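Propose amino acids for all 64 sites.
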């Protein structure tokens, strides 16, 4: 598995844990990780790229 995929998977997991905590505080039902990822996919991808990959290029010219 590539470093980026591992970082993304870790990011998703941490965001899901935060969401579970937040939902518990507001007495809302907890989502499974799959439900959370499906419902928030675009937000999660955008957040990950801005936080972790914002200054890197995907076109092969600069990445790392």
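Proposal:
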């Amino acid at each position: 598995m590539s470093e980026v995929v591992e970082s993304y998977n870790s990011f998703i997991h941490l965001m899901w844990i935060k969401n579970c905590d937040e939902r518990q505080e507001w007495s809302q039902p907890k989502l499974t990780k799959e439900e959370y990822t499906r419902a928030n996919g675009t937000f999660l991808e955008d957040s990950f790229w801005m936080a972790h990959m914002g200054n890197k290029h995907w076109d092969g010219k600069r990445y790392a």
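The chain is about 65% helix and 0% strand. The mean pLDDT is 88.
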